[in-house]
Amino acid sequence: MAKAALKQAGGEFARFFVVGVGATLLHLVVYWLLNWCFDLTEQNALGITLTYAAGYAVSFVANYVVTLRWTFKTEGSVSKGLGFAFSHLVNAGMHLGLLNLFRSVGAGDALSMLIIWLMPWLVELVPMLGRPEALLPLPVYVIVVPLNFLMVRFFLKR
After folding, report:
1. CA angle, residues 14, 17, 18, in degrees to nearest 5
2. Residue 112's pLDDT is what?
3. Which residues lie closer than 8 Å to 19 by C-beta, 6 or more apart?
4. Would you tell me the crossing angle of helices 137-156 and 78-104 to the nearest 10 degrees?
5. Roughly how many angstroms between the first and final C-alpha of the chain, as a whole number?
6. DSSP assignment of 26-50, as one string?
7. What is the DSSP string of 90-102?
8. How confident is the model at residue 69 (pLDDT cuts 50, 70, 90)?
9. What pLDDT, on a 0 to 100 scale, did the predictor assign at position 4?
10. Which of 17, 45, 55, 91 could disulfide-pair with 31, CB 3.0 to 4.6 Å?
11. How many angstroms separate the Cα of 126 from the Cα of each of 21, 121, 122, 136?
12. Residue 15 CA: distances (Å) to CA of 138, 153, 158
């Protein structure tokens, strides 16, 4: 019995990972496009926060539908929707808090210098990767994604 539950959780995590990568890429693309459209830099804290939140909102909607139907293969309900929304509200708070923490300590600058030093060819190919504000989400994802899996699984698999 425990082996089957472990196998199911492993499959759910794998599907969650695939959906999460897609949602993360969608989030990043919206964030990058908005930053580019508004010509924002790392120094514009409010603008960076708003474009990050907008990207999060777009990915949230897509993520909910795919997570519900494919990741956890369950039907929607008001309580599941509210639980998912609550977990993502907490998740969004962690995202925005960590984004601004990393911005304030210069993590974007450090990451961009590292990428420019290690992979200058990549920055030439994708110039956005040399911009500190473009890289700020990366350390946020490393911390928040595993925590989000646990919260979403709790609310959708009760």
Report:
1. 90
2. 93
3. 63, 66, 67, 70, 71
4. 160
5. 18
6. HHHHHHHHHHHHTT--TT-HHHHHH
7. HHHHHHHHHHHHH
8. confident
9. 65
10. 55
11. 19, 9, 6, 16
12. 21, 12, 18
| pLDDT single digits (tens) 129-148 | 899 999 999 999 989 888 87
28, 114, 132, 135 from 118: Cα distances, Å: 22, 6, 15, 15
In whole angstroms, what is the distance from residue 99 CA to residue 35 CA? 15
Contact 49, 96 (CB under 8 A): yes
Which residue is listed with tokens 């907008």?
Answer: 54
72 pLDDT band (50/70/90 cuts)?
Answer: confident
Model confidence band, residue 6 (pLDDT cutoffs 50, 70, 90) = low
